Amino acid sequence: MSCSKWQASAKSIGGSDLALRKLAKKLQWRRCPQCRIVVERNEGCKHMTCRCGHQFCFLYVSGYAGPTRGPSCS
């Protein structure tokens, strides 16, 4: 997407979309790195499996390399 297309789409964002973005930031929700849907973690492990099937660490918002590889996601 070009800069001009992004700027045009940003201007067309409705009030409810802006409210959702502000709420997501305030409550520290994350976006799935693959499908970009907003994901909320309210308890348990930081290992997430999105509804699109992508696995990622909620803390680092990066791909999940398994329990013994990469940064700790516990």
UniProtKB/TrEMBL annotation:
Q: Which UniProt keywords apply?
A: Metal-binding, Ubl conjugation pathway, Zinc, Zinc-finger
Spans traversing the lipid bilayer: none
Looking up CDD domains in the UniProt record yields: Rcat_RBR_unk (cd22584)
Please name the InterPro entries in this protein's record: E3_UB_ligase_RBR (IPR031127), IBR_dom (IPR002867)
GO BP annotation list = protein ubiquitination
Q: Pfam families, alphabetically? A: IBR (PF01485)
Q: Does the keyword Zinc-finger apply?
A: yes
Q: Where is the IBR domain?
A: 20-58
Q: Does the keyword Zinc-finger apply?
A: yes
Which GO MF terms does the UniProt record name? ubiquitin-protein transferase activity; zinc ion binding
Q: What PANTHER family does the record tag this protein with?
A: RBR FAMILY RING FINGER AND IBR DOMAIN-CONTAINING (PTHR11685)
Task: Write the protein's name.
Answer: IBR domain-containing protein
Organism for this UniProt entry: Tulasnella calospora MUT 4182
List the lineage, top down: Eukaryota, Fungi, Dikarya, Basidiomycota, Agaricomycotina
